[in-house]
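Much of what follows relies on a compact textual record of a protein's fold. A record is reproduced here so that you can trace the correspondence yourselves:

. . .
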Amino acid sequence: MSNRKQTGPPEPSNDPGNSRAIRDWYQDLGIDEYYRRHGKQYQNPHLPWIQALIERNHARLDLSHCLDFCCGRGEVSKILLQLGYRQIIGCDPYTQSLYQQQSGLDCLAWSFEDLLQGKLTGNYSCIISSFALHLCPRDQLAPLVWQLFNCTSQLVIVTPHKRPELELIEGIELSFTDQVLTQRGKRIRLKVYRPLMPPE
């Protein structure tokens, strides 16, 4: 397992989502309601570092048939397309039509709650979730992740936090991790997981 650290691209000059911190919106509206109202306008200001992490690690991933979970506007999918990967499908209940319009790819509409009900099916070489799973309530995280592992053996998390720490869940191994530092000193992490055993 490796853990590389490197300063990433220059800080973006704009601040999508305006000057108010998105965590304040989450607190006021709740995560679901925020994305129902503002999902089509939201843009992740950390996209340059997300791209840097994916570009320097994609050869270590099996991206032959990838699910972009909580795909938003399709930023991660577009990075994968630029790298030459074509078998990609999105999944986002709030931005499904926007993702399809901007990426030209198909998109499922399943939420965290839908996954907990077992609605996600299929077999993917890799599932990527960028800036999303740290928002999952702690008591739902393990069952949600095992639903993802029902459909893949490789789960890639891009996160602005140490969370989620899936390696603390019994039966899940952290295969490798990488990180970049923004010019403001914020760590953006890429964490790759695999299951060691099937869910009970």
